[in-house]
């Protein structure tokens, strides 16, 4: 992550510095060019105006005398510029300076020729004996056809170059300030980007190690925040998948343990009886018949367990196809009550059926509805020793409500939420007396949901339980 941070910092720094340097460089070059051109042009025009004013003051003087020199000195002080006069041959005959060191020097022949032909401005001036560059203008000296020579006004370029130097220095300082500011901005931007990225990296590493409860905390509202939210969503889904995996693993382990337990008990009994019979320990025919009866009972228990397991697996894998037709609930309830009537009488229990008048039919698989009721009644018979078992059906809005009510031992409040689980048994302490697979109610729940219904149980320990299922009714228009 440190390398990534350095890479981000380096790329941002190069980008910002390149932008600043190129931008200020181009701006400085363009600004210098146009400013220099503007200053030179302005200075030339100013010198040209002053040169014409000088000529207006001395155009009647064609001889160099003290009066002319005094005028030149006065104009020098007024315009703050040097004034030279040269004759028609190009020789300097008078200056506005006190010393006469330039007197007798010659100007360039081209300049003298241009001025004598009426050209009034020159930007380059070459004077014998002078090496310093000057910005100069020249105009004819005289009036009309009376041209005595030329007037030259010049100003050293040193001041203009100094201005340009100051401008270049200002641009350089601005560039240095821009570089410094860019470095500071890049450092901050790099920090603001790399800090949440490091947080995301640490969180991703924790998620990679299996800590799916870890979340990214980013207090920005940009693309990095969107990335953090995506990672949080992914972690949430992974956490949910992991929880489901653990749950499925626990269910699988519980399933194997329960199946092993349910199979071990009857198989152990069968093995013990077979060994006794095989070793000839049971000689009396009556005793052998009892052994055979017990083994038959245990074998039937294993068969019921296998059948229930197959039914439950098919239901959970959506491999059960319902043959739905209009079903008369009262008819199914009476048939189920009749099939358990003898068993209820043997235990001294009353079996009753209550059906509301003009109860509408349900659209369902008749055999599966009978299986649901048989499992509920069988469960009620198992845990009811005195009293009665009643099946009751009534209309409740869009559903037909079917209840199986018993006066048995009841179910503890802590067990109510688990009553529909596979292999869960309320009578864990009395499982030897009440044999069952522990799958009946799980099958009931799956079948009810397969019919788009719902189920619920209410119970009071010592007073009995009420199992209620709701199945969609057939609407009158159907």
UniProtKB/TrEMBL annotation:
InterPro entries: HAMP_dom (IPR003660), HATPase_C_sf (IPR036890), HATPase_dom (IPR003594), His_kinase_dom (IPR005467), HisK_dim/P_dom (IPR003661), HisK_dim/P_sf (IPR036097), HssS/ArlS-like (IPR050398), Sig_transdc_His_kin-like_C (IPR004358)
Compartments where located: Cell membrane
Membrane-protein topology: Multi-pass membrane protein
Coiled-coil blocks: 224-258
The HAMP domain, residue ranges: 191-243
Reaction catalysis annotation: ATP + protein L-histidine = ADP + protein N-phospho-L-histidine
Pfam families, per the entry: HAMP, HATPase_c, HisKA
Transmembrane regions listed in the UniProt entry: 12-34, 171-191
GO MF terms, alphabetically ordered: kinase activity
Keyword tags: ATP-binding, Cell membrane, Coiled coil, Kinase, Membrane, Nucleotide-binding, Phosphoprotein, Transferase, Transmembrane, Transmembrane helix, Two-component regulatory system
SUPFAM superfamilies from the UniProt entry: ATPase domain of HSP90 chaperone/DNA topoisomerase II/histidine kinase, HAMP domain-like, Homodimeric domain of signal transducing histidine kinase
The EC number(s) this enzyme carries: 2.7.13.3
Main location: membrane
Name of the protein this chain belongs to: histidine kinase
Organism: Brevibacillus porteri
């Amino acid at each position: 992550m440190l390398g990534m941070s350095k890479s981000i910092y380096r790329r941002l720094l190069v980008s910002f510095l390149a932008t600043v340097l190129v931008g200020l460089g181009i701006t400085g070059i363009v600004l210098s060019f146009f400013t220099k051109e503007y200053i030179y042009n302005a200075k030339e025009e100013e010198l040209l105006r002053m040169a014409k004013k000088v000529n207006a003051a001395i155009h009647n003087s064609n001889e160099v005398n003290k009066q002319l020199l005094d005028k030149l000195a006065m104009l020098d002080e007024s315009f703050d510029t040097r004034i030279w006069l040269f004759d028609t041959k190009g020789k300097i005959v008078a200056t506005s300076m006190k010393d006469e060191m330039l007197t007798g020097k010659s100007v360039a022949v081209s300049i003298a020729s241009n001025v004598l032909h009426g050209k009034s401005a020159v930007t380059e001036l070459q004077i014998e004996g002078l090496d310093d560059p000057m910005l100069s203008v020249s105009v004819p000296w005289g009036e009309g056809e009376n041209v005595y020579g030329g007037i030259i006004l010049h100003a050293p370029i040193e001041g203009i170059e100094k201005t340009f130097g100051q401008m270049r220095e200002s641009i350089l300082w601005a560039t240095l300030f821009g570089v410094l500011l860019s470095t500071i901005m890049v450092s901050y931007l790099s920090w603001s980007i790399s800090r949440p990225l490091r947080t995301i990296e640490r969180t991703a590493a924790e998620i990679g190690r299996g800590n799916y409860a870890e979340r990214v905390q980013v207090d920005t509202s940009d693309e990095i925040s969107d990335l953090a939210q995506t990672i949080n969503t992914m972690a949430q889904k992974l956490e949910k998948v992991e929880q489901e995996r653990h749950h499925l693993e626990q269910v699988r382990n519980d399933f194997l343990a329960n199946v092993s337990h349910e199979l071990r008990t009857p198989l152990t009994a069968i093995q013990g009886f077979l060994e006794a019979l095989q070793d000839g320990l049971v000689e009396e025919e009556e005793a052998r018949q009892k052994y055979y009866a017990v083994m038959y009972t245990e074998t039937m228990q294993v068969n019921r367990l296998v059948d229930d397991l197959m039914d439950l697996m098919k239901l959970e894998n959506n491999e059960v196809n319902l043959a739905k037709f209009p079903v008369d609930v009262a008819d199914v309830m009476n048939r189920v009550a009749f099939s358990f009537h003898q068993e209820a009488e043997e235990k001294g229990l009353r079996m009753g059926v209550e059906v509301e008048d003009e109860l509408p039919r349900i659209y369902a698989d008749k055999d599966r509805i009978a299986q649901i009721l048989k499992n509920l009644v069988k469960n009620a018979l198992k845990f009811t020793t005195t009293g009665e078992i009643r099946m009751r059906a009534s209309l409740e809005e869009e559903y037909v409500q079917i209840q199986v009510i018993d006066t048995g031992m009841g179910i503890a409040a802590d067990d109510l939420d688990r009553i529909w689980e596979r292999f869960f048994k309320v009578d864990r302490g009395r499982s030897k007396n009440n044999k069952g697979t522990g799958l009946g109610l799980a099958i009931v729940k799956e079948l009810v949901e397969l019919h788009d219904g719902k189920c619920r149980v209410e119970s009071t320990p010592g007073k009995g339980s009420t199992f209620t299922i709701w199945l969609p009714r057939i609407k009158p228009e159907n």
